[in-house]
Amino acid sequence: MSEDPKKDLPQWSEDFPIAWEEDHYVTRRELAKFLTLGSALLVGANTAMAVAGRARQERLYAPQRIAGAGALGAGESLLFRYPTDEDPCILVRTREGALVAFSQVCTHLSCAVVFRPADERLFCPCHNGLFECGEGRGGAQPLEGPPERPLPRIVLAVKDGEVYAVGVRT
Ligand code: FES
């Protein structure tokens, strides 16, 4: 005569039976492989996003006349709006005679930057932000203060003695 094997089991094991033999075990090695692969994928994705974020972008818009090419003397600047009336920009003639233009909207909290001829920098009076004002390919790099991103550069073209804004490079 055989005894019932379930006789001494607690009630919960009948209510919630667990089929141990069908349960899936994850070995330490499998877990380590999964974590390593997952970490590698995260690092790759973050790197790709960082590279994409730093990549320069240039957008071309309809050309817009800003001024005559001789309108500015060395160390002078003038304000204009581009590509829309909501986008204030600044055109500068450097001491070396180059024409450069940038968005006038500070990348910290959007105050208007002004040209400071004494050191040829773009200065934001709100929190003493300072940007370079050179001829590089990218935007005006932040030098001091809270801004961390460059001011977008306005792409210029000179044709028939007139200066045009033709695009924006970030
Ligand atoms: S808004 Fe320009 S430095 Fe803060």
Describe, in plain words, how this protein is organized in 3D.
There is one protein chain. With 170 residues, the chain is an alpha+beta fold. It contains 2 helices and 10 strands; from the N terminus they run ααββββββββββ. The protein has helices spanning 11-15, 28-54, and strands at 58-68, 77-81, 88-93, 99-103, 114-116, 121-124, 129-131, 142-144, 153-159, 162-169. It has a 4-stranded antiparallel sheet, with no helix packed on it. A hairpin with a 5-residue loop joins β3 and β4. The longest helix is centred in the first third of the chain and has 27 residues, at 28-54. It is rod-shaped and about 110 Å long. The N and C termini lie far apart (87 Å). The mean pLDDT is 89. FE2/S2 (inorganic) cluster binds at residues 106, 108-109, 111, 124, 126-127, 129, 145-147.
**Beta-strand percentage range:** 25-35%
Poorly predicted runs of 5 or more residues: none
Class of secondary structure makeup: alpha+beta
What series of H and E elements makes up the topology? HHEEEEEEEEEE
Whole-angstrom Rg? 31 Å
Instruction: Characterize the largest beta sheet: strand count, sense, and whether it forms a barrel.
Output: 4 strands, antiparallel
Query: Care to count the β-strands?
Result: 10
Silhouette: rod-shaped
The proportion of residues forming helix, as a percent range, comes to 10-25%
Terminal CA distance: 87 Å
List of distinct ligands in this structure: FE2/S2 (inorganic) cluster
Q: What is the mean predicted local confidence, pLDDT? A: 89
